From TrEMBL:
GO cellular component, one term: membrane
Location(s), subcellular: Membrane
Keyword Transferase assigned: yes
InterPro entries named in the record: Bact_transf, EPS_sugar_tfrase
Segment forming the signal sequence: none
Name of the protein described by the UniProt record: Exopolysaccharide biosynthesis polyprenyl glycosylphosphotransferase
Bacterial sugar transferase domain location: 256-448
Length: 454
């Protein structure tokens, strides 16, 4: 099926629904035609009918912008003499079309994903490449389907990179077999995901794939120097990238604090019955020690704060960890690398339940209410992890640590330590209210589906 049919199908569905909504509210034909032209004009302007691959929260943002602009235009253009009832009808129509457009777009992308998705080949087999493939194939809204990977380690002309264990079911081709992969998989798009490679390698790959597919995308190694606030500028034929590391404005900080207070109040109120429940579970299992656990973590500006959690381990967990690392070199290596143990023997049966449901983090809403933490922010790191945070330390401590954040919403305990730091650094450089909304959505989704623990 031709991919260009999707926006046509979406447009037809929305036109029909728009017309029936207007008829339901008994609007005259002049208003239907005039408002309809204006509505779909804003939809085109904000890229609603674009074939570009985007995630559902990007679609929500585009629809919110177009709907808001359309509504403001209606308030300006529709005379006040039409009356309060007519204006209410217009308001309901805008809200209804927002949800209809979102659901229609989602339905078409999911129902016809197999026909519309770009068949994609990823060049690279490292962590970034594997994560890119996982996001593309697991997100049904995205119109990108990764069919295979190319391991550049299979050629003497290029440098080699470690193949990531996250790549499991997809076929992996050697670099010399790339043309064969393009033909066999009917590849339409190539994504170069080797951010560690130098310019010589990238130039070689670009040269080898030139003209072989419809679209080529490149995943760069930005290291915080380029953000979504950066601008690409044409400087008399020279391509310049203007970086931006904007700090939060007074309004942004005030808005974020209001959200934190609301979340903190809700969290602390629900903490009371939750505490009774957790205490009951521990007593029932024969554990009569304190159910709360406090620990020093790195807060804003490097100041040490004491955070609170429900205890999920045996009471003397730190001493047990030291003993385990002395007795088992494999455990020591795993902990020093990831700062966590995947199968931690110190976790109690009740604690295992708390971690899987992320209820062990709930007492941190008290820290949020106190102003020591934020609802959304970087991970609260341990003081002993400061050295391991490396270059990311200075940017991470400029924000309050959060109950949830980038790394929790992007794999949680499945994400290795160095990548957690990179995600938190990304959050600092790219913070926005919309990013916080996205993290909240993804955190709830990952907790519901039980993917990792906070």
């Amino acid at each position: 099926m031709n991919r260009k049919l999707m926006p046509i199908m979406l447009f037809v569905i929305e036109v029909v629904m728009y017309y029936f909504i207007c008829l339901y509210f008994a609007m005259d034909i002049e208003l239907i035609v005039g408002s309809g032209i204006l509505y779909f004009l804003f939809m085109f302007i904000y890229g609603h009918y674009s074939l570009k691959t985007c995630l559902i929260w990007n679609e929500i943002r585009q629809l919110a912008k177009s709907s808001f602009c359309f509504y403001i235009a209606l308030l300006v253009l529709v005379p006040r003499s039409t009356g309060y009832e007519r204006r209410m009808h217009l308001t309901i129509m805008v809200i209804s079309m927002f949800f209809i457009s979102l659901l229609a777009s989602r339905f078409l992308r999911i129902a016809f994903r197999e026909q519309f998705a770009r068949k994609t080949l990823v060049i690279g087999t490292g962590y970034e490449a594997a994560r890119l493939g996982k996001i593309s194939n697991n997100n049904r809204f995205a119109l990108t389907e990764v069919k295979g990977y190319v391991d550049i380690n299979y050629t003497d002309q290029l440098y080699g990179f470690k193949q990531e264990n996250l790549i499991k079911k997809s076929p992996v081709y050697g670099y010399c077999d790339m043309d064969k992969a393009i033909d066999a998989l009917n590849i339409e798009q190539i994504i170069i995901a080797i951010p560690e490679a130098d310019q010589q390698v990238i130039d070689k790959v670009m040269s080898d794939i030139h003209g072989k597919v419809e679209s080529v995308k490149y995943l760069p190694d930005v290291n915080g120097t380029m953000t979504f606030s950066s601008e690409v500028q044409d400087f008399d034929g020279q391509l310049l990238i203007a970086t931006s590391n904007d700090k939060m404005s007074v309004f942004d900080r005030a808005f974020k604090r209001i959200i934190d207070i609301m979340a903190g109040l809700a969290g602390v109120i629900t903490l009371i019955p939750l505490t009774i429940f957790v205490k009951y579970k521990y007593v029932k299992s024969g554990d009569h020690d304190s159910i709360f656990f406090s620990q020093e973590r790195i807060g804003k500006d490097g100041k040490l704060i004491k955070i609170y959690k429900f205890r999920s381990m045996v009471p003397n967990a730190e001493e047990v960890l030291e003993r385990l690392m002395e007795e088992d070199p494999a455990i020591k290596e795993e902990y020093l690398t990831n700062k966590k143990l995947k199968h931690d023997p110190r976790i109690t049966p009740v604690g295992d339940f708390l971690r899987k449901t992320s209820l062990d983090e709930w007492p941190q809403f008290y820290n949020v209410l106190k102003g020591e933490m934020s609802f959304i922010g970087p991970r609260p790191y341990l003081p002993r992890e400061k050295e391991d945070m490396g270059q990311f330390y200075d940017s991470i401590i400029k924000l309050k640590p959060g109950v949830t954040g980038m790394w929790q919403a992007n794999g949680r305990s499945d994400v290795e330590f160095s990548y957690r730091c990179k995600l938190d650094d990304y959050y600092y450089h790219n913070w926005s209210i919309w990013l916080d909304f996205t993290i909240m959505y993804k955190t709830v989704k990952s907790v519901v589906y039980g993917k990792g623990s906070l």
